[in-house]
Write a structure and sequence with these properties.
The protein is an alpha+beta fold. The protein has two domains: about 30-75 and about 80-250, no CATH class; about 260-330, no CATH class. It has helices at about 5-10, 35-40, 55-60, 95-115, 120-135, 145-160, 170-185, 250-255, 300; strands at about 70-75, 80-85, 195-200, 200, 205, 230, 280-285, 285-290. The protein is elongated.
């Protein structure tokens, strides 16, 4: 009786040689998919997957660090349960535009290849549509930190409950813009929307999902309503290449660039604004303030403020009780 091949080789077709005749040149730039991310997607994406886990640098080290993401096993009432360990999202707000563009197509492809739902093609298209909305915005290259924070908030909301992704969240974008302006005035983010380093360490987003109060997603902007983690700076994994955060500026230096628009707080505009330096306002530690020290509501002047608000609802151009967009000086 002929000796049988080991089971390892039993499924190999007889016509397929075990050792190819010619050598195969391996591509040194070929990156393997992170096993933890693939596993999370196969499980239905019940946990948030930060894009920091899908950059080229993260993929190069994914197999070396796979042991750090093992499930947590617990015994409760005699029942053995395994809980997937959360991904480290502490550096996601520091992604560069290049890393963001590396990571999101990889996430779309992995959803298309590995999600267990029968409609995974539609889900992958939905993700692709959302990322396309983000990256094609004219201001994405100017304020990448702002749009990355918006993406984090939307995808965290999707993880908590399914929502239509391929849809521009205008209200959420306005909230983020408001928080970005306040955080920039306070010196906790730079002009591109990235968190800056403070004396207490790196400001960063937490791993928590949307807040419980009203279900509003975390803005990710430190010092502007977002739930930022002001603790010790997170350790960087070997091979990661996230953007280096800037050092926080002194109050005198932060208040120096009064060339910024007092209406919207931005140094550049897509259309003429002519609101560079209203004489009665000044830039304080917490935002734009009036002579009496009361803080001005930027949202009221930009696009209207709804709901309870304790900030001053007066014009940033003349001080009267109308929004700056309706001020005769702005016309």
């Amino acid at each position: 009786m002929a000796e049988q091949l080991p089971r390892t080789y039993a499924s190999v077709a007889a016509s397929q040689p075990l050792v190819p005749a010619s050598p195969t040149i391996l591509d040194p730039d070929h990156l393997l998919d992170p096993p933890r991310v693939v596993k999370a997607i196969k499980a239905g994406m019940k946990q948030y997957i930060p894009l920091t886990a899908l950059t080229n640098a993260a993929c190069r080290t994914a197999y070396r660090t796979a042991h750090k993401g093992r499930d947590t096993v617990r015994i409760e009432n005699g029942v053995l349960t395994a809980t997937a360990k959360e991904f480290d999202a502490s550096r996601e707000l520091h992604l560069t535009t290049e890393e963001f563009r590396e990571a999101w197509p990889r996430l779309v492809r992995l959803v298309r290849d590995h999600h267990p739902h029968a409609e995974r093609e539609l889900l992958a298209d939905d993700f692709h549509g959302w990322f396309n909305l983000i990256t094609t915005k004219p201001k994405f290259s100017m304020y990448p930190g702002l749009f990355i924070a918006l993406d984090v908030a939307v995808r965290r909301s999707w993880t908590a409950r399914p929502i239509k992704l391929n849809f521009w969240q205008e209200e959420l974008y306005r909230e983020h813009m408001q928080d970005f302006l306040l955080a920039k005035a306070a010196g906790t983010v730079d002009e591109r929307g990235y968190p800056v380093e403070t004396t207490h360490g790196l400001t960063s987003t937490s791993n928590a999902g949307p807040s419980g109060a009203g279900g509003r997603a975390d803005t990710g902007f430190p010092g502007a309503g977002g739930r930022a983690d002001a603790g010790r700076p997170p350790a960087r994994s070997q091979g990661q290449s996230f953007r280096e955060p800037q050092r926080a500026q002194s109050p005198a230096r932060r208040m120096e660039p009064l060339r910024w628009c007092f209406l919207c707080g931005l140094p550049f505009h897509g259309e003429p604004c002519r609101n560079d330096n209203p004489p009665y306002l000044k830039r304080g530690e917490s935002g734009l303030v009036q002579p009496d020290g009361s803080r001005l509501c930027v949202k009221f002047n930009k696009f209207g403020c709804r709901g309870s608000c304790r900030l001053a609802h007066v014009c940033s151009l003349c001080g009267k009780e109308h929004g700056a967009q309706h001020c005769p000086r702005h016309a």
